[in-house]
Amino acid sequence: MAIHSTLTPEALLEAPIYSHPIPNASGNLAVYTQRKYSFRSHSEIREIRVWDMNSPRSWAVTDNPRANYPGWLGHSEQLIWLEAMDNGNTRFVVRDSRLRSAHYVVGTVPGPVKNLKVTSVAFSEDCDDDLSFAVVGQANTDGTLFNPDDNISTHTPHHPQTTLPGRGAHRPKSVIWFGGLVRPSQATEGQYTMTPMTNLMEYFKFGELESDGSFDDDSLDFFKDTWHILFVAKDPESDQSTHTASSCYLCPMMAWTGFPPPDECYHAWRFRGLGGTISSPTVNAGGTVALLCKKEDGYAADKNRIVEQEGRQVLYQLNLASWPNPPTPADLELFDGLMRFGSVMDVTPLPEKSKRVLVSCDSSDSSRRVIIQDLPAQVSGTSPPSPIRGESFGLSERQVDQIWFPGDEQRQIHAWVVKPSYFKPKQIYPLLYVIHGGPQDSWRQGWDMRCHLALFAEHGGFEYIRETLEYVDTERAVALGLGYGGYMINWIQGNGLGCRFKALIADNGTFNLLSHLSNSTQHSILHGLGGPPWLNPEAWRKWDPAQHAGNWKTPLLLIHGELNRQSPVSDTLAAFNTLKLQSAETALLIFPDEGSRIRSTENLLLWYRTVLEWLEHEQPQNKRIGMFSYGSGLASTLFSFRVKGDTSRIAEQVRLNERLESRTPVSPEFYNEMCDLREKAYQQKNYTPVGSVDTLTPGIYYLVHVDDSPSSI
Question: What transmembrane ranges does the database entry give (predicted)?
Answer without folding.
Answer: none
